[in-house]
Each structure stands twice: as structure tokens, then as C-alpha cells.
Amino acid sequence: MSRPRELEDRLGAAEELTIVCHNNPDPDCLASAFALGRIATAAGIDERRILYSGDISHQQNRAFVNMLDIDLRLFEAEAVRNRSAGSLLAFVDHSVPGANNRVPAGTPIDIVIDHHPIEGVEAAFVDHREGVGATATILTEYVRELETDVNSALGTALLFAIRRETLGFLRGATRAEYDAAGWLHDHADTSLLRTLSTPSVTGATVDTIASAIRNRTVRGSVLISGIGRTSERDALPQAADYLATLEGVETAVVFGIVDDGIQLSARSTDARIHVGQVLDAAFGDVGSAGGHREMAGGEVPLGVFADYTKDDAQLFSIVEQVVTSRLIAELNLAEGSGS
After folding, report:
1. Rounded Cα gap, residues 131 and 112, in angstroms
2. Is 71 a residue whose pLDDT tops 80?
3. Residues in domain DDH (predicted)?
4. What is the pTM (predicted TM-score) of this model?
């Protein structure tokens, strides 16, 4: 039996489905959850919910949710903890309880569909493909084989997610992404795709990116920039995307304090560096970090740092020293090579 048919059978035997997105979900996660919900509907599940935690603050992600009318709910611990015998718990675009999600570690998971490189994936049903460029690609295969009804909203969501996750098919794209995109083309609203691709940018986001540019330090082909405290969490990956395009820069890491944690975002075109492994090795012992060779992120609780001072400038000075030194050590950079 094929994986889509196996999933269909598993859903058909259930009465309820809870889909948990990872923290601060991106289009790949949201579109995949949207698609899995449609597959569950076709399988006869009437009770469905998509839960998320953190923020949907990136202007593209907000537009994505609003314009496609995706029904999301804030994470509810009770919905995960007190599930009935006929209820399934699913992860899309992430795999392990407690890693980039608020589900307690050790919680049994029924369904996992993901493409991120990570070890220790366990569930009753697992489709974990590290070689695929987007989780939305896998879900596109599922809706195609199962002949799920794909209206313009779902088609647009999946196609936009694949394009965004692969940076317009320039990062991590495989033949599977092109095949999925070709099929989705006839199901998507091209006008809406253009709108989603060019959302308005807030002044606060521009200010955060400007801070990253101002505070950059370059060591060889590696750029590191700390932006202090910000409310614009999603400006960090945007800043990393931009700084990685600077002449001579092959790897860019941007970090800042958001609420009660340190957020990191990294990009790399250096074939010698796997930024997901770099961030995991540098911060995995004190937080959650990882990702792909070209794109990665991480979050470290402020914890003991916050006990030193309540002054943001002093606090970030301490954070900057620790984060920078860990990155320098893990990337094997010479301390005196800054510019």
C-alpha cells in the first residue's frame, strides 16, 4: 500500500484530528497543515483543528493566513493532553515533541510528515524525507494520489509554500518540487500568488534590518550581526536573507532578543558549511536550533542571562559576547579576522 493510501486508511478509522504546527509557523508548515486537514475531511473526519504557538508576525505569513482564510487556533495543551481514543495527533513540517513546538517531550504522535533533517522521529505513521525541498511537496503528492479536492485556496497555498521554502526554486529544490509546482499551476490563483509574494513591509521591520546592516561584523566570508532587542522576530530571517547577498559573504547569522529568548537566523551558500548543524552544535545544549545546510534558525531562552541585569543594553552586551564566541568557535573563525 502506498503512503498516501496508508494515511487515508489511518484517518478513516479516526473521529478527530489535531494538527500541531511548529512555533511561529511559516508558509510550508501552514500549507501542509491546510492540505492535511483537507485530506482528513475527505476521509470522513468532521472534527479537525490546526494549532500554532508563538507568533505569525512576518508580513507574508499574515497575508498568507488572512487571504487564504486558513482556520488556526492558538495552541491548547488540553487538546493534546486529553485526547479521546479516536483522536489523532499530527505534526507537519516538524517531527519531535518539545523541539520547536509546545507539545511536551515524550508525547505519543500519530502522524509525522516532514522534510527537515532531524534524528529520533517516532510516530505511528511517518513520512520523513530529508531529500525533499519542502513538506508542501510531500502533501501535494498526497492530494494528487488521493484525488483530494484542490480548490484555488489550497492550490495557491501549496504552490506559494514550495516557492517560498526553496527561495523561488534556487535553494534545496529537487525534481519533486518542479513536478509538484507544475501540477499545482492549474489549481492556483496566479493573481493571489503575486500579491502574497509582494506584501507591504512595516517601518519596524525596515528598522530591524537596518540595525542588522549597521551592526554587522565580517570574518572572512562569515557575517555575524546582533540587533539587540526587537519585537520584529520575523525581520531576523529577512535580514539574514539580505546580508547573505553582500559581496564576499557566504554565510550570514543574525540574532537578537525577542521577548524572553534569543532568536537566531542563518543563511549560507558555502558548500563547506551546514548551518543547521552549526547552530545545533553551538546552541543545542542550551536551546533549540537546527535546519538545513543553506537555512537554519534557533531559539535560546534568556534564562540565567536575564538575572544579571534588567537593562536591555547591558543584557544584550552579555548575550552578544556569548553568542558571538560560540559561533566563532563552532565556525572555527580567527578572533582577529573581523572587519
Report:
1. 16
2. yes
3. 18-161
4. 0.78
